Amino acid sequence: MIDIKLLRQDADGVRAALARRLDPAVDAMLASLAELDRRRRDALTRTEALKARRNAASDEVARRKKAKENADDLLAELKASGEEVKALDAEVRGIDEEIERIIMVVPNLPLPTVPDGDAPANRVEKEVGTKPSFAFTPKPHWELGAALGLFDLPRGTKISGSGFPLFTGMGARLARALANFMLDVHSREHGYTEISPPYVVTRATMTATGQLPKFEEELYLAGADDLFLIPTAEVPVTNIHRDEILDAAELPKGYVAWTPCFRREAGAGGKDTRGLIRVHQFDKVELVRYCRPEDSEAEHERLTRHAETILERLEIPYRRLALAAGDTGFASARTWDLEVWAAGVGTWLEASSCSTFTDFQARRGNIRFRREAGAKPEFVHTLNGSGVAFPRTIIALLENNQAADGSVRLPAALVPYMGTERLVPRA
Fold this sequence. Notes:
The protein is of the alpha+beta class. It is 41% helix and 19% strand. The chain contains 13 helices and 16 strands. The strands form 4 sheets. The chain has an 8-stranded mixed β-sheet with strand order 1-9-10-11-14-8-7-2. β4 and β5 form a beta hairpin. α2 packs antiparallel against α3 (24-66). The chain is elongated and about 110 Å long. The termini are far apart.
């Protein structure tokens, strides 16, 4: 969540920064916060004045009693002012609750380097690799996958409904190979600690990373236990250090996790639903980092390069996009998307989003660090990125490496994990 102190100190600056998100609801939220904060400060001022008057009256009561003088008027005043203080304290508590309710749905401030505008203003930072060319018309992945026996989408739909793919045979092995390859690179070469987190989490956990309260309708809820299926490993992994104070010597700290991800994506029905482009359950390797505020920018570049390394090793053409402020996610201060080229569908597909959240998540989750013994705790900065997501990576691998006979060449990096250099159609 944003720092309420910043809103008090620089209301115009906060309002200008959030206006770049192009969300008309934000202005009303900021106006409500400003009014609530004014009422809170007024109530506190009145409380302090009453308490000062009560202290003076109590001293006078003590003096009169000692002098055996009547103090009934002051005792009556103390009783009345005591009730008023209680009422003001209750008012402040109510205002604090309302401030908390509103501030939890106010998005993060985009960094100044984030481009202005909405999705069409997303800026291509770089493009890496060469798009493949074919002497034949390349097939989409859903045709290739069916012919190669990699996945069975109709049976997945029969089991769970649309958006829940069933991987079979070499397709299941491909998913496992991708996970092992990515985990090995990130843990052995990039220095991440591998984590296997729970796949269901509490409301407090979802709230700390920004999924709740704003996005509850997009989540899968196990209602009887009030637990949520994770939409990304970012959620449990970022919460590992919730309500903790880290030692500065531990930072930066990085974790990597391979998990399934579950997303209802309410309202997305009918959009890119063919094949694996948009699904409700998918596997992803996630990178999470914690750092000191002054290291945040360098850590964002480092994390993004770690994700890009995977795409480069897999020989997939990709491009890095700097998302515009109006297209940047709720909790993110800056996001770089990595899009892979998919020759069969002839388009770029997002395979990774790498974001820096500044102290937005750390404030929600109370994740702090101490620079030295006895120093005042400060909020860490959190970052995360897909390192990378499987479905669109698989799409790119199949569509870009297909041959006229329907076989698919595997990149050298995956051969040791797959035990073969080529996927061939079933007889």
